[in-house]
Amino acid sequence: MRRERDRLSVEWVKLELLRTAYATRGGLLAGRDPRAVIGWYLILAVVPWFTHNVTVLVGLFVVCAVAVVLSRVGPLILGLFVIGFVLEGLYVLFAAWLFGGDTSTVLALAELTLKLATVSLASMAAFVSLDPEKLSDALLSLHAPAMLSFGVSYGYRMLPVLMEEFHTVVDGHRLRAAPLVSKGFLGWRVAVRTATTLVAAFYPLMLNTAKRTRTTVEALETRGFTYAAEHPDGRRIRLAALRADRWDAVFLGATLVLVAACFAVGRAFPLLGGAA
User: Torsion angle of alpha carbons 205, 207, 212, 215, nearest 10°?
Assistant: First the structure.
């Protein structure tokens, strides 16, 4: 029991978020070219919105679920997804019952839930496999604006700084606050104290982060970051590490085959849904 409480600590949550952001778990997609991973994500994030066939959506959901397992998505992100998916399913049933809906109403809501769940799984599998540098270089290689590429990379880099700053501010509030005389019924005083501390920590957190951001931007500009990102020679040097091989083409081709197979099965065995 003690070990389980330790696993659910704030420190564990922080470490899980950092592992997710920096793609330290490896997996199937982590070894692929980041441009291929982005292409894979776009395929599975867009295709579900072009069909109303529940069988096709179930097939796409299974494909993305297998990709999540092979990508080694962490337990925190996966657990949040499962909780959200279950609650969404309960909401579908409750909404259909509350408004006097029938089977067609449940199917319509379930169809939307499956689409959102499929896109969510694809997002988890793709972005848990891309570290900040890979994602930034892929966007730059796809001719995205240089500042967008920098913003993505910088946002990832600021994540641990934000978390450390948040811990510092919250610990400061806790040290200065008097202990509670009693927790109250069901610990309501603890909940109120926690919510008040989080709100009070917001402004100093933003202020300290803004100071660090300005310092970082000025340091980058003195080193010619903007010029290097926009100059052809700078782009060539930065993107020299990107190498797409035949396995990336096989990976994308296999994805398209699986998507086509889902549509074929959906046409042959429609599961109470419309045509694909």
Answer: 180
Query: Which one-letter DSSP state was computed for residue 181?
Result: S
Is position 273 within any domain? no
Range of the domain at 235: 2-268
pLDDT of res. 127: 84
The pLDDT of residue 49? 92
Instruction: Provide the angle, in degrees to the nearest 10, between the axes of the packed helices 54-70 and 34-46.
Output: 150
Nearest to 106 by CA among 114, 116, 95: 95
**Is 246 a domain residue?**
yes
Contacts of 263 (CB under 8 A, 6+ apart): 51, 53, 56, 276
Quote the CA–CA distance of 228 and 272 in Å, as a whole number: 56
Write the DSSP string, 150-163: HHHHHHHHHHHHHH
Distance CA 215, CA 212 (A): 5
Q: Do the domain assignments include residue 134? A: yes
Classify residue 178 as left (phi > 0), alpha (psi -120 to 50) or beta.
beta
Q: What residue type is 233 in one-letter code?
A: D
Domains in the chain, number = 1
**In this predicted structure, what is the pLDDT of residue 10?**
61
The radius of gyration of the chain's CA atoms, rounded to the nearest angstrom, is 23
* Distance between CA atoms of residues 92 and 128, nearest Å: 29
Closest by CA to 179, choosing from 196, 191, 169, 193, is: 193
Q: In Å, how far are 87, 89, 272 from 94, measured between CA atoms?
A: 10, 9, 20
Q: What angle do CA 192, 197, 162 make, to 5 degrees?
A: 140
- List the structure tokens of 69: 């397992």
Q: Is residue 50 part of a domain?
A: yes
Contact of 162 with 178, CB cutoff 8 Å: no
> Taking the model in full, what pTM does it have?
0.75
Token digits of residue 102: 């029938």
